Amino acid sequence: MSEVVFVGTSDAFGAGGRRQSAVFARGERGGMLIDCGATTNTGLSALEIPRDEVDVILVSHFHGDHFGGIPGFLYAALYADRRRHALEIAGPPEIEARVHALANAMGHHLGNREWSFPIRYREIRPGETREVGPATIQAFATAHQLEAHPQGYRIQLGAESIAYSGDTGWFEALPRAVAGSGLFICECPRMRGARFPSLARGAARASRRSRLRSPDPDPPRRDDDRSARSDRARDRRRRIRRQALSRPSSHSTP
Ligand SMILES: [Zn+2]
């Protein structure tokens, strides 16, 4: 891989005056835009990255700050760039319907015009691996709002590999999911309970076993985490109570 450019690194609200999520990865066989927030077209323009270099837009989940820029990208490719070569748009199940619904809501209906280039939609489910444009992409489920179909990716682009979390909270299978990647781009808005040493150790351990291995397609969700925490707290209370009962009391003898 020759280059990775962080086009946007803010949260959904433009924190720090930065743009919303988007990373451009340029490989030997083509370029990929990982997420495309509402501000991404402005970012590509400011960074002088031609849209023509983007062969694939890969979407992590259906929040506007991660895929809200796709309708604008398509229209710019058609009218400003006069694009001729194919564009693949890959992402969670429903990717095509979600992009069309978004474009309709924005007043840019996609279905009623002549496109000068083919647009191919590719669904990738957690646990699946797909060849998409210049890359091999493997998806893994993440811990974010379920209705947005959140997932992260392992991306093999030429000789190099990237892991990308998209928005996620901490989950125990994360180190294994990203192990072996040359670069891990982690976007964890809620990291309560995260164990960074565990992440580093787990990733190192797993990467020794395999360079591109199957991640756990079904990590525990936040509700599961919460119930596991309350189970552990209940077990701890029981253990303390048992110890207190079994310990001879200094006040038990007259
Ligand atoms: Zn999100």
Task: Report what the structure shows.
By secondary structure, this protein is an alpha/beta fold. The chain has a single domain (3-218), classed as Metallo-beta-lactamase, Chain A (4-Layer Sandwich), CATH 3.60.15.10. Helix content is 30%, strand content 27%. Strands 1-2-3-4-5-6 form a 6-stranded mixed sheet. Strand 7 and strand 8 form a beta hairpin. The termini are far apart. Zinc ion is lined by residues 61, 63, 144, 148, 167.
Features:
254 residues; alpha/beta; Metallo-beta-lactamase, Chain A; six-stranded mixed β-sheet; five-stranded mixed β-sheet; 7 helices; disordered C terminus; binds zinc ion
How do the helices and strands line up, and which of them pair or pack?
Blueprint: E1 3-8, E2 22-27, E3 30-34, H1 40-46, E4 54-58, H2 64-67, H3 70-80, E5 87-91, H4 95-105, E6 119-123, E7 129-132, E8 135-141, E9 151-157, E10 160-169, H5 174-178, E11 183-190, H6 196-209, H7 222-246
Parallel strand pairs: 3-4, 4-5, 5-6, 10-11
Antiparallel strand pairs: 1-2, 2-3, 7-8, 8-9, 9-10
This protein binds zinc ion (ZN).
Name of the CATH first level: Alpha Beta
The succession of helices and strands, N to C, reads: EEEHEHHEHEEEEEHEHH
Proportion in helices: 25-40%
Strand % is 25-35%
As a whole number of angstroms, the C-alpha radius of gyration is 22 Å
Mean pLDDT: 83
Shape: globular
Uncertain segments: 209-224, 243-254
User: Bound small molecules, which ones?
Assistant: zinc ion
Estimate nothing, just give the exact number of structural domains: 1
Question: Biggest β-sheet, characterized?
Answer: 6 strands, mixed
In CATH, the topology is named Metallo-beta-lactamase, Chain A
How far is it from the N-terminal to the C-terminal residue, by CA? 79 Å
Total number of β-strand segments?
11
User: Number of DSSP helices?
Assistant: 7
Which CATH architecture would you pick? 4-Layer Sandwich
Spatially, the strands of the biggest sheet line up as: 1-2-3-4-5-6
Q: Based on helices, strands and strand pairing, what is the structural class? A: alpha/beta
Which superfamily, in CATH terms, is the homologous superfamily? Ribonuclease Z/Hydroxyacylglutathione hydrolase-like
